[in-house]
Amino acid sequence: MSDLRIAEARITPIAFADPPLLNNAGCHQPYALRSIIEVETEARVIGLGESYGGRSVLDGLARLAPLLTGLKVTDLNGLWSAARTVVSEGDSALLPRLVGAVEVAMWDALGKSTGQRVCDLLGGQVRQRVPYSAYLFYKFGRHAGADADDSWGEVLTPEALVEEARTMINLYGFKAIKLKAGILDPEAEIAGLEALRVAFPQAPLRIDPNGGWRAETAIKLLPRLENLIEYLEDPTPGLDGMAAVQAATGIPLATNMCIISPEHLPPGIARDSCRVILSDHHYWGGLAASRELARICAVWGLGLSMHSNSHLGISLAAMTHLAAATPNLTYDCDTHSPWQTDEVIEGGKLVFKEGELEVPDGPGLGVTLDRSELQRLHRNYLEHGYEQRDDAAEMRRHWPDWSFARPRF
Ligand code: GKR
Ligand code: MG
What we know:
This protein is 37% helix and 16% strand. The protein has 409 residues and is an alpha/beta fold. Helix 7 (215-225) packs parallel to helix 8. The protein is globular, with a radius of gyration of 21 Å. The chain starts with 5 loop residues before the first strand and ends in an 11-residue tail after the last helix.
């Protein structure tokens, strides 16, 4: 089947508008970076992918792209082999990122070439709709130097947080709520969670300080978190710190920080460092590798949810296909989508109904590229000069004395 062979792979770096959201590493910059991957077959079918847009991923993809010519879109082993040749030994994080970026485009090309949806190619659809959570952030009202607040305004108090949640839930219908933490004093952040509990008595709640708390701090806070949250995400850095906190509570700990590749699973499971894995096809090596991760979670009795970063619709479509084809997805997935105003797929953003997304209609991922938006977002990339996400530098434009610390509290 020569027409399933790749004729050309193209990578376009883009920058899209992002609000001043806060996390333990600082503040989001005015533009988030992403790469858009196009894999074109000899039959001129184009498969799409979306991934990180920082320097090392872009450089790696630039080295990988020419090696893809002639590879069949079904040849995932060939993709891993090609990617290995462009990654230096020891850069274990880059390899699955490069594979994940291209692999989604290969699935999309295969689906579009054969008239099948990616969720069917991944083993079949097991849920009609994929549930997502309301991803709340503390935030500044405006970016440094901007002359007006964005529509969300400043969110640094429990009252403002409840307002943010109300807006997001009214717009999208999410059921579960996740609070990004590790910025303010932990007591203040838990007061925010408690205010959310009062305002949304039924909502499953989660908090994610991104390793911003010492293990002792997290353990001291546990009594306030018991019976309040469904899981505690990365309260503290490292497998040992997480295991110490997990040993002190019945609340499941979750991670997208200390178990982020296959070699972390045996020590993490042996130490009981956490009981929920937040998978992410962008850094686990793609959709097939994420299905394997789901299977490992099922075997070891681990819960499974999905992590996100600032992203656009190709990523969201891929996440939705993957989640639709994953039987043991035990929690609602994360998404940054409500924070993004730009889009790169035709027809605009995918539409959440009651907090859920249907698998997009049509073969492959079911989405197509809006070429004029792609060009506009690529011009943003060229004009605004961001090459690397730097939340700490951005934070100091607001709070000049701030410096990065993990754990901080
Ligand atoms: O977007 O600021 C952010 C998040 O903190 C993101 O970078 C994390 O990767 O959402 C993520 C998480 O759950 O840790
Ligand atoms: Mg997290």
